[in-house]
Amino acid sequence: MSAHTLTPAAATAAPEVKQRSSLRMTVDYLLKDRASLIAASFLVLLVLFALAAPLLAGITGHPANDQFRETGLTPAGVPVGPGTEFWLGADQLGRDVLVRLAYGARVSLIVGVVASLAAASIGIMVGMVAGYFGGKVDTVLSRCIDLVMSVPFLLAALALVSVLGASLPLSVGVIVFFSWTSLARVIRGQVIALRQREFVEAARSLGAGHWGIIFRDILPNLAAPIIIYATLMIPSSIVFEATLSFLGMGIVPPDASWGGMLAEASGNSIYLTAWWLVLFPGLALLFTTLAFNVLGDGLRDALDPRTRRKAK
Amino acid sequence: MFMFLLKRLGFGLLVLFLLSLFVFLLFFVAPGDPARAIAGDKATEELLAQIRDTLGLNQPLYQQYLDFASRLLHGDLGFSYRSQQPVTELIFDRLPVTMSLVGGAMVLWLLIGIPVGVASARKPGSLRDRIGQSFAMTGISFPTFVLGMILLYTLYSLPAKAGFLLFPPSGYIELAQSPVQWAWHLVLPWITLALVTAAVYARLTRAQMLEVLGEDYIRTARAKGVREQSVIYKHAFRSAMTPLVTQLGIDIGVMLGGVIVIEQVFGLAGVGSLAVQAVQTQDRPVIIGVVLLGGLFVAVANILVDIAYTRLDARVRTA
Amino acid sequence: MALLEVKNLSVSFPTADGTLHVVRDVSFSVEAGDFFGIVGESGSGKSVLVQAILGLVPGAKLSGQALFNGRDLIGLPAEELRRIRGAKISMIFQDPLSSLHPQYTVGQQLVEAITTHQKVPKSEARSRAISMMRKVGIKDAERRADSYPHQFSGGMRQRIMIAMALLLQPELIIADEPTTALDSTVQAQILDLLSSMQRELNTTVIMISHDLSVVSRVASQMMVLYAGTCMELGAADEVFTSPSHPYTARLLAATPSVHNTEHRLRPIDGSLPSLLAPPTGCAFAPRCELADERCRGTLPPLEEHRSGRLAACFHPDTELAAPEPVIARSAGQQEGAPPIISAQGIKLSFSAGSWPHKRQVNVLKGVDLQLFEGETLGLVGESGCGKSTLVRVIAGLLQPQEGSVLVEGQELGAPNTESWKQARHLVQMVFQDPFGSLNPKRRVGSIIADPFMIHTDLRGEQLKSRVRELMDLVGLNPEHYNRFPSEFSGGQRQRIGIARALALKPKVVLFDEPVSALDVSVQAQILNLISDLQRELGLSYIFISHDLSVVRHISDRVAVMDRGQIIELAGAQQLYENPQTDFTKTLLAASARS
């Protein structure tokens, strides 16, 4: 027996030692991982913050798209900073940054989650079919993946938006179209490896059909990469959306989005005096992507003992 | 091996063909009248008809595409609706800016990312590793424009307000004109782009190195008594390099899209900001030109990766 | 003074679930010029023991002493240890493909072994490397030095590893399972090379293996490890012929032999104790028939017993109960009865490579095979001969380009046709890898119930009780219905695979290397189960193995395959005693010697 096979799992296979279920082990590991815990708590707070957007508008008395030129701007037209009236300051049109931040959170989360789920579903299906059936099916699907990956996505997105006009559904569509490929590649690779495992052959020799094998035997074994990659897809979708909005090709003003808020701050260089216009949406964006990435990494370590052993 | 490269070249051409078809159809089916876009709102019907005729808009669809494609093959991308300049000229005027930006940043991110990744992998779990990983995690999470704006604010605006200029305001000085000025104007964009991308390389390098360091042949090298420094660089890094080169090719390929945001933030007049302007003004020939150039970049980068791959991997080379 | 003297060595690994005690208090000494064998099943700690001494196991905690020429290797600074590795002590590993760097030529790798320790010009190092390559039997060494590892065959790669280990004329060579990954004929050549090199260069060799007979053939001294403790230590041939420790004796009794088919195998019941909580007494006590209170409570010391052999046992040299004779099967080949399976003119080829280097690889070149009711047909051959492909054709998993398979006179037909589905009820298969053949994400009950779900309307309680019956039949505790495969040991998993194969009450079961992934002690349990089931249920078997003694033990007739064809087929006794073809003779000679 070589040193490499000396995993804890091999030792716990002995009957005397009670084996923990994989779910249990994952949860135990995550609970011990402080970074993942903090990230998860931040995301819970973020969701609450987004849900509470109308409530915040009610409490402050500042609906998101209303301009308060008397209270929000100084007589010289400069926005007022954080204070009792505007907790996180006002923007160049006298709108409440806090309330707009909360509505922006809704956009980011919805786009992030919806686009990731849709892209993940496409990626899983394409990857499973390509990997399982192999041959010509695989060649065609793999070439499609290569093709989509070869398109300079931000440029293509710009071209699409310039023709079809900016809108939320188009943003989501563009993000989905360009983000399913990486998961499809990963899943395809995993399925090719799984397909050669003897349990798939065993199922075949028992007479199980192809789709039965795909969904009953292969899919459950893909849980770990799916969870990890779907989690990591959310922050990149959020950044993608923010980038589109930053370039004025995502969410249509005056609706609030983090990218749009940063674009407005950057556009007329107002942020050089009103730092809060960059700091708050910038940090919101940074911490959100950071939280998802940290959580994704934590999940990877928890679900994949291979990387965990190396990390220790 | 030659056949393999030939196949990849064919695929690159296919990508370019499909991309040209995509942009062509996109603008053909799009609402709006190109003739009006050129002539403006006050143009007469006669003028519009004349423009349509010169542009070949009355021809059947396939004929239009063939014309479009044959002009493409001759390197003719048409004229900008706005400035009436040839699109190729517009792009080539701005290409040096974008190339300088990408080239300098690439050197930086490789010099930062790979050593950080190797250092992390040598002692996984150590303090050094945790610092390296935190750097990488923050880097991959930072949206480029947020980092750019923060750097611009802290390293340019604040000092400028205090009265001394650490970095120049936006703008681009040609390399031939003054290398120092050239670099000085590009330092902030370089750092921004490099930090964000170095994080990806640090993570990739670390993961690859850890993977390779677990291989049996590393154990063999150690059993031979090879020095640890040699084990890391000569044995492990040699194998970890292949995926890094692949990643580099991908990054160079899509860079044209990636620099759009940076050019926007730092007010650099490169190809990226040309694209943004073109979109804002509905200048279709320019958009088509930039998108196709982007596709060309990807195709060329892919072929370079494949060549590098066959040079680097003995198993492919001798197959 | 001994060349290597290990005193009270322990190796442990801290893990999330506690400390793994992999090696516990092992002492032995190797004299200069010895060929020292270390034998143990998986989990015995044999590889970790030697690799840890050389500082090649990251994360290992060591205690005790390992004196090499009187100098303690444990606790030596890393740099000092590095100077010893390769120069004074070199290693040969199990898998020569993964142990050689894929991106450097073998010449470069051999040269590096020299230049790491000696200041010599590259050209001189290269000529030394090439002459060593010649010495280990690589033809055209000058040119081959510029080839990459993947351009060599498995046996040639292992020769290169041996050349690398010999280059600096080290005082000690450690070979860790050097032949396990190789075919038996190649295995014999490598063992010959290793012992001739040892004699010629007068070095000392420590060889690690799971196979007692391989070690006894080449080693002068032998140590038997079990669960990280030393069980027995002495002259190799004596340990092999008259073991002192009951574990060694039981291990030998569990090993099938080409020569002896009169006796039933005697498996060792139970399984390896957990290394997280090793027993306080003798590690083997829970599985030992001689064990008493003293054995369980206190660790028996390693003491000298009969004829200078050392054994850690309170009941050494006890004769084991005589093995049971093989129970004769009532069924057998019936005169004139039609075969239950008949394969005719099976041809199958794969296309390999990609355009324009696409080529056809002919895996099966027209195979005819008949299986009669109640018999076991053994199928032997080297890796790549097509034996696994042949049973997959018979199982209906692969479709041949030419030829047909008749099951009870019915054409098997293409996958998913009605006749193919019917054949599922008649022919089933058991796979090699007990870890890979069970879906790790599904519970055992659901795995065994799969055939019923696919082919019958059986559901709910009825289904459950059928599954429990099957688990009982193959010797599994039916209570473990809800467990996942990872909670079972290798042998138990193979029982699950057998239960699944038997669910539809097939008449024929195809076994593809069903015991080759198992340790000897467990292998015997499974082989006995397979024989018992055949007798009870009147099954017919096709049994693939690369191990000729296993096949001899279990088969009525044996077919020898080579390069896609059956080259010899005869009754087991006849084939083993009077082989007709040269290939079979080589195969038998290699296996008799290893």
From TrEMBL, chain A:
The chain crosses the membrane at residues 35-59, 109-133, 153-178, 226-252, 272-296. One of its GO terms (biological process) is transmembrane transport. It is a multi-pass membrane protein. Signal peptide: none annotated. Residues 105-296 form the ABC transmembrane type-1 domain. Keywords: Cell membrane, Membrane, Transmembrane, Transmembrane helix, Transport. Pfam families: BPD_transp_1. This is Peptide ABC transporter permease. It is found in: Cell membrane.
Automatic annotation (TrEMBL), chain B:
The chain crosses the membrane at residues 97-119, 131-156, 182-202, 244-266, 286-309. PROSITE patterns: ABC_TM1. It is a multi-pass membrane protein. Keywords: Cell membrane, Membrane, Transmembrane, Transmembrane helix, Transport. It comes from the Bacteria. Residues 95-309 form the ABC transmembrane type-1 domain. The keyword Transport applies. GO terms for cellular component: plasma membrane. GO terms for molecular function: dipeptide transmembrane transporter activity. It is found in: Cell membrane. It holds the Pfam family BPD_transp_1_N. PANTHER family: DIPEPTIDE TRANSPORT SYSTEM PERMEASE PROTEIN DPPB-RELATED. Belongs to the binding-protein-dependent transport system permease family. This is ABC di/oligopeptide transporter inner membrane subunit. It comes from Glutamicibacter uratoxydans (Arthrobacter uratoxydans).
From TrEMBL, chain C:
Pfam families: ABC_tran (PF00005), oligo_HPY (PF08352). Residues 4-252, 343-588 form the ABC transporter domain. InterPro entries: AAA+_ATPase (IPR003593), ABC_transp_ATP-bind (IPR050319), ABC_transporter-like_ATP-bd (IPR003439), ABC_transporter-like_CS (IPR017871), Oligopep_ABC_C (IPR013563), P-loop_NTPase (IPR027417). Keywords: ATP-binding, Nucleotide-binding, Transport. GO terms for molecular function: ATP binding; ATP hydrolysis activity. CDD domains: ABC_NikE_OppD_transporters. Gene3D superfamilies: P-loop containing nucleotide triphosphate hydrolases (3.40.50.300). It comes from the Bacteria. GO terms for biological process: peptide transport; transmembrane transport. Belongs to the ABC transporter superfamily. This is ABC transporter ATP-binding protein. It comes from Glutamicibacter uratoxydans (Arthrobacter uratoxydans). The gene is oppD.
